[in-house]
Structure formats: structure tokens, C-alpha cells
């Protein structure tokens, strides 16, 4: 018997908080420029963002099950997949249905927004649909694309697109914030690849932890995190983003422990797992503090 918990597991519902904090940042930008958006707009943008995330998660679960990867990964709270399809193979067909139905909802809601605001939004929407469909294969078979695909999806498509609609304009501030989100989400998926290098390689995936090793990838992780903070500092200094955006730097209190742990335990996965959680906490705090600073300014 299929249960709601099976669908929630396949959609990786606990990770949808990332979508929510990205939307809060976009909403703060919209409020900064033009006040609160109409409820209908807020609803449609939220639908697009949530169901896009559900679609890519469910499709990834389905394809990892079909490739056999789901049987090989080490399951942690933050990586390795949910294992829902391994436990209940009858759910596989429904995972695919969930992915495609969610994608259809995204396209209908997205076209509604574009029709109401600007069809220029399709320059984000069409690549977004392609990203959902191509994320597991072939994007995960090319290291650079595998690295930036999550960040592009959440930063340059979701956050930028939502902020564009809420603010009713697209400007340098929105681009800067989108790039910051991109770097953070790149790091989220990069670190989550560390536990599954061997399993990923066995099914044809090829990302930086496989290509250059975990220890060198730890430097890539650190570089992106430092760059995200540097962009905020430079943007505030040059008045590209509001002064109170500097509140985001409070999240840096977690950074030394995180960076030290990632470098020390890059090849010791059981010891590394708590730092996967710390990375999630830092990213959420960073984006939420950015949103708070912009809203308060």
C-alpha cells in the first residue's frame, strides 16, 4: 500500500526548506523595491518553486533507482538518496508520475506568471525545465556542469526569477544576490557528493570529488564559501545591496568549524557527516540573514 510518507520521502520534503529560504530572500527584495506582491503572484511563484524542487528530487530518485545507484550509496541524513524506492519498489512508477506531474504544474503556473508579467521570464523558465529533466543525466557526467547545475537552478533561475517578479524589475542587486545563492547551493551539493564517490563512479557519474579527489574538492568548497562572503562585503561597500545585508556575515560564525571539519575529514565519511548538517545550517542562516537585512533596511 502506498503511503503519504512514501511520496514525502521521494520528494525529499525535508529539503524543501532550501526553496522556502530562497523565496524569502526574493520576497525581501520585492518588498524593498515595491512592497508586498499580490497574493495571487506570491501563490503562483511559490507553486513554481516548490513543485520544481519536488520534480527534480522525485526524478532523481527514480533515475537513481533505475540505474542501481540507490542500492550502492551510503544513506545519511543529507546524502545518498531517501532509499524509499529500495524499500518499496512498487513506488518507482509513482515517483516518475510525481516528477512529471510536478513538472507540468511548474510549466502551467510559470506560463501564467509570464503571461501576467513578462514573457521574458521564459528565458529562465525554459532552461529551468531542461535543468530538471537533464540534472541526473547527462549533467552529472560532466564535473563543471555537475558543480554549477544546483546553484544555477536555485540561484540564477529560482531566486533571480522570483525576485524579478516580486520587484517588477531585474537589476544588479538581484543578480548579485542570485550569484551568492548559486555559490552556496553549489557547495551544498558538492559536499553531499563526498560520501558517494565510489557509488557514483560505478554508474557513470563524474563530478569533482571523483575527478580530483575529496581533499582537493574541499579547497573548491572553501573557495566558494569565502567568495560568497566576499561578494556580500564588496556589494555592501559599493552600495549595490542594502547596508543591513551585512547581517549575513553573522552566519560566518559557523564557517571556521565547517571549513576545518571538511578539510580534516574529507576522506573519513562517518566523521564528515555532522559537517554536512553544519553546511546546511550555515547556508540557511546565510540566506535568511540576507533576507532579514534587506527587509529591515
Automatic annotation (TrEMBL):
<dbReference type="Pfam" id="PF01040">
    <property type="entry name" value="UbiA"/>
</dbReference>
<keyword id="KW-1003">Cell membrane</keyword>
<keyword id="KW-1133">Transmembrane helix</keyword>
<dbReference type="GO" id="GO:0042371">
    <property type="term" value="P:vitamin K biosynthetic process"/>
</dbReference>
<feature type="transmembrane region" description="Helical">
    <location>
        <begin position="94"/>
        <end position="113"/>
    </location>
</feature>
<dbReference type="GO" id="GO:0004659">
    <property type="term" value="F:prenyltransferase activity"/>
</dbReference>
<dbReference type="GO" id="GO:0009234">
    <property type="term" value="P:menaquinone biosynthetic process"/>
</dbReference>
<feature type="transmembrane region" description="Helical">
    <location>
        <begin position="272"/>
        <end position="296"/>
    </location>
</feature>
<protein>
    <submittedName>
        <fullName>1,4-dihydroxy-2-naphthoate prenyltransferase</fullName>
    </submittedName>
</protein>
<dbReference type="GO" id="GO:0016020">
    <property type="term" value="C:membrane"/>
</dbReference>
<feature type="transmembrane region" description="Helical">
    <location>
        <begin position="119"/>
        <end position="136"/>
    </location>
</feature>
<feature type="transmembrane region" description="Helical">
    <location>
        <begin position="40"/>
        <end position="59"/>
    </location>
</feature>
<feature type="transmembrane region" description="Helical">
    <location>
        <begin position="218"/>
        <end position="238"/>
    </location>
</feature>
<comment type="pathway">
    <text>Quinol/quinone metabolism; menaquinone biosynthesis.</text>
</comment>
<dbReference type="InterPro" id="IPR000537">
    <property type="entry name" value="UbiA_prenyltransferase"/>
</dbReference>
<keyword id="KW-0812">Transmembrane</keyword>
<dbReference type="InterPro" id="IPR026046">
    <property type="entry name" value="UBIAD1"/>
</dbReference>
<keyword id="KW-0472">Membrane</keyword>
<dbReference type="InterPro" id="IPR044878">
    <property type="entry name" value="UbiA_sf"/>
</dbReference>
<feature type="transmembrane region" description="Helical">
    <location>
        <begin position="172"/>
        <end position="191"/>
    </location>
</feature>
<feature type="transmembrane region" description="Helical">
    <location>
        <begin position="143"/>
        <end position="166"/>
    </location>
</feature>
<keyword id="KW-0474">Menaquinone biosynthesis</keyword>
<keyword id="KW-0808">Transferase</keyword>
Amino acid at each position: 500500500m502506498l503511503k503519504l510518507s512514501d511520496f514525502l520521502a521521494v520528494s525529499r520534503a525535508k529539503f524543501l526548506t532550501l526553496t522556502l529560504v530562497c523565496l524569502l530572500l526574493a520576497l525581501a527584495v520585492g518588498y524593498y523595491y515595491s512592497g508586498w506582491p499580490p497574493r495571487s503572484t506570491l501563490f503562483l511563484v511559490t507553486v513554481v518553486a516548490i513543485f520544481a524542487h519536488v520534480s527534480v528530487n522525485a526524478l532523481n530518485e527514480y533515475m537513481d533507482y533505475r540505474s542501481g545507484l540507490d542500492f550502492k550509496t551510503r544513506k545519511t541524513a543529507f546524502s545518498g538518496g531517501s532509499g524509499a524506492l529500495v524499500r518499496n519498489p512498487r513506488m518507482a512508477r509513482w515517483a516518475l508520475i510525481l516528477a512529471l506531474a510536478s513538472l507540468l504544474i511548474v510549466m502551467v503556473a510559470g506560463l501564467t506568471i509570464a503571461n501576467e508579467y513578462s514573457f521574458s521570464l521564459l528565458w529562465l523558465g525554459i532552461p529551468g525545465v531542461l535543468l530538471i529533466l537533464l540534472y541526473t543525466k547527462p549533467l552529472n557526467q560532466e564535473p563543471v556542469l555537475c558543480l554549477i547545475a544546483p546553484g544555477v537552478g536555485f540561484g540564477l533561475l529560482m531566486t533571480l526569477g522570483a525576485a524579478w517578479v516580486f520587484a517588477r524589475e531585474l537589476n544588479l542587486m538581484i543578480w548579485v544576490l542570485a550569484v551568492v545563492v548559486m555559490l552556496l547551493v553549489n557547495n551544498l551539493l558538492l559536499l553531499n557528493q563526498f560520501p558517494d564517490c565510489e557509488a557514483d563512479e560505478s554508474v557513470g557519474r563524474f563530478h569533482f570529488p571523483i575527478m580530483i579527489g575529496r581533499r582537493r574538492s574541499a579547497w573548491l568548497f572553501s573557495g566558494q564559501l569565502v567568495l560568497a562572503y566576499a561578494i556580500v562585503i564588496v556589494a555592501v561597500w559599493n552600495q549595490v545591496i542594502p547596508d543591513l545585508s551585512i547581517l549575513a556575515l553573522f552566519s560566518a560564525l559557523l564557517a571556521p568549524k565547517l571549513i576545518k571539519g571538511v578539510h580534516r575529514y574529507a576522506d573519513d565519511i562517518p566523521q564528515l557527516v555532522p559537517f554536512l548538517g553544519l553546511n546546511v545550517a550555515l547556508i540557511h542562516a546565510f540566506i535568511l540573514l540576507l533576507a532579514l537585512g534587506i527587509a529591515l533596511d
